[in-house]
Amino acid sequence: MKWVFSMLTVLPLAGLAQTPQATDPAPAGKVFGGSQQFRTFSIGVNAGVLMPVVATGGSNDFTKWQVNYGYGANVKWQILHFLGLRADFMGGKVKGDNSRKLGDGSDPNRQYQSFETTLKWSGSLNAVFNVASINWLHKQGAAQLYLSVGGGLAGYSPEMTTPGGVTTEYKPSGTLKEFYVPVGAGIKFRLSDITNLDLGYTMHYVDGDNFDGYNYNSPTKDKFSYAHVGIEFALGNRAKPQLQWHNAPAVMYDDLVAQKDQLKLELDAQKESNAKLAASVEKLQADSDGDGVSDLFDKCPNTPKTDKVDGSGCPLPKPDTAKPGPVQVIITEDDRRLVRDAIANLEFATGKSDIKPASYPSLNRVADLLKRKNLSLKLAGHTDNVGNDASNMRLSKDRAESVKAYLVSQGANPSRIEATGYGETQPIASNKTAAGRQKNRRVEFTIY
């Protein structure tokens, strides 16, 4: 038995030396992509030696075991990374004799000198567990250790030979069928994306004492083992990796690194955008001459701070001090109708303070009126009661300020326009109806 374990020790090293491509880059599935992205089925063939003894020890009916050939095949379905179901088929011959004397010089079985059992067929279903993976930091490992356990049925025919050389069949012209439990271990090497090298050792515990054709000490159960070298072929699309070699932690690490790089790029782009926005705001707020009009819109720069200016930053006409008394401004009914038309035509984008272009003509006429007669204007923004109070107050203020900004852009004096927001606090109709809420959403103009 020593040479068998020597074979299992040496062959993995030889197999590893011949498989440098096992660590080459290969397709790797996503961690949570499902089993459809992998190859999960494989078939294999193997050959090795059968022995009427197992590594766990225990006595058999004959004193010395012999080594003979064996062969097998299997079909495997890899369910999870660490778990697969494998159907094994095996045949061959198992031999032993009584050439070894016991300590007291007696033979445990004087009736027969040797036996030979032909294992005509056997089939078992096994659960295979991947318990360790060499080179596991790569997306696909180079080698892995596994354990297996299952149950099956064997058909065999024992023949016994007496010391005089007479051979007898245990069951003439027939086959014995008994249940057995296979328990095995092995190491597997990935030779390529298609083929794997399999080195394994399996112990078979037979549910009976007929395997060697003799029942020496009932109810002792017979047992035998099988050491093999095999080749496994993965089935399916070659572009897909084998599930049994897939290393989820390594793939997850690569995904996290890729996501980190992508997030860094997005963050850098956002920082650049924020910097441009800050520069634009700073430019918009710049007012070199302090007249209340941004340099971006100031058509008359360097205006003295004591001068009153219009919306374009240009000084307003100064009153004639030679004429005594203040100039009286008369607001006509046409003036009031012009303001009412502007109110009626004023429209904003839904839920925003953006003025719709359809409102520009009537607002232009109001701006012209304010400039011609140097009138003052009070803007009061109102909303309905839909939404929270703070949001409504902010929206009403923003809309009033938006109207002021537009009038100023058309040349109106910003110092003569007051913009105030009242939110939902001053309704002019019931908020319980759609028509009432429509009336409450308004901006009021008051000229004086």
Describe the structure.
With 448 residues, the protein is an alpha+beta fold. It has two domains: 2-18 and 37-100 and 107-249, Porin, CATH 2.40.160; 333-447, 60s Ribosomal Protein L30, Chain: A (2-Layer Sandwich), CATH 3.30.1330.60. The protein has six helices and 13 strands. The strands form two sheets. The protein has an eight-stranded antiparallel beta barrel. Strand 3 and strand 4 form a beta hairpin. Helix 3 runs antiparallel to helix 4 (360-373). The longest helix has 38 residues, at 248-285.
Q: How widely separated are the two ends?
A: 114 Å
Number of strands: 13
What letter string, H or E per element, gives the SSE order? Answer: HEEEEEEEEEEHHHEHEHE
The percent of residues in helical segments reads: 10-25%
CATH level 1 class label of the largest domain: Mainly Beta
InterPro entries: Bact_OuterMem_StrucFunc, OMP/PagP_B-barrel, OMP_bac, OmpA-like, OmpA-like_sf, TSP_type-3_rpt
Domain OmpA-like: 335-448
Signal peptide: 1-22
Protein name: OmpA-like domain-containing protein
Q: Which features characterize this protein?
A:
about 450 residues; alpha+beta; Porin; 60s Ribosomal Protein L30, Chain: A; 2 domains; 8-stranded antiparallel barrel; 3-stranded mixed sheet; 13 strands; rod-shaped
What topology does this entry show?
Layout: H1 2-17, E1 41-51, E2 64-66, E3 68-78, E4 83-97, E5 114-134, E6 143-161, E7 167-169, E8 176-190, E9 195-206, E10 223-234, H2 248-285, H3 333-345, H4 360-373, E11 377-382, H5 389-409, E12 417-421, H6 434-440, E13 442-447
Helix pairs in contact: 3-4, 4-5
